[in-house]
Amino acid sequence: MMPHVTGPVLLPEVRAALRDGAPVVALESTLLAHGLPAPRNREVADELEAVVRSRGAVPATVAVLDGVPRVGLTAAELDRVCGGDLVKLSVRDLGVAVGLRRDGATTVAATAALAAAAGVALFATGGLGGVHRGARESWDVSADLAALARTPVLTVCSGVKSILDVAATLELLETSSVPVLGFGTDAFPGFYRRDSGFPVPWRVDDVAQVAAVWRAHRDVGGGAGMVLAQPVPAADEVDAALHDRLLAEGLALVAERGIVGKDVTPALLAHFHEASGGVSLTANLALVRANAELAAQVAVALAG
Ligand code: PSU
Ligand code: MN
Q1: For residue 272, which phi and psi values (nearest 5 degrees)?
Q2: What is the CATH T-level fold of the domain 1-120, as seen in this structure?
Q3: Does the pLDDT value for residue 269 go beyond 90?
Q4: pTM of the entire predicted model
Q5: Closest residue to atom 17 of ligand 1, CA basis
Q6: Where does Mn(2+) bind (predicted)?
Q7: Phi-psi region at 278: left, alpha or beta (left = phi > 0; alpha = psi -120 to 50)
């Protein structure tokens, strides 16, 4: 039989940090490969890792390269992730990509799965996938939700985009026994907007509270992940009228072009970035950086 890789391969720095109980934060690669335009995405990859380091944690960007699931990437590997052509891999695609020795960027679901397998508990991203509008007909519900239900990883994000059915997404998180905490907010964030219009079930106001809740959740929470939702910095929030226009246009465009399945989210994101003259990109970058920073602070609190 041919030898094959069974678990993720850790960058030596990440392996050493985990061995020593030092703080580590996993970072998602689909947001780089499919959520941000090249070549800006490559700078963002470095910026996110630098933010994590600035708070005293070790960053570990996750992807599959040549069929090897990797937790922690070298600069050359980040080049490949940001260089285009990478397939978008959710959890169901991981085994296929490994078996066929392919490259791919990992979604929230796949990143959480590989991070957990590597022993990394903290994970930062921009927005979660969720229940799409019209899911009653299309059945389009992101595998991110099912993955969070069974993967003990704390995901720091800015809620979900209003391209989704936010109410249904929150309902499904409740059904899946995934706690949702608002960080310094009573409102579930709507990615580009600080308030999606729906409340969070729980609010926390500092990193020590997050660490206490996560420790307890691991003991009594039944094995599910947890969502820590932080709104986009106020200065970078997209104006409500612009946001509503972009959303209406994006949804119409996706319907018109018959875009379905895993292409829906990247198509909507691309439209937002192109049609907003960079405003949505600024917001996107600001919130991802803030989430990486918060995740690192929580990781440090948990390691201390
Ligand atoms: N939401 C965003 N930006 C993103 C994504 C979601 O605001 O880049 C990406 C994440 O990788 C997420 C994935 O896991 O899209 C969800 O895709 P789908 O809806 O096809 O499950
Ligand atoms: Mn989908």
Answers
A1: -55, -50
A2: Indigoidine synthase fold (3.40.1790)
A3: no
A4: 0.96
A5: 129
A6: 140
A7: left
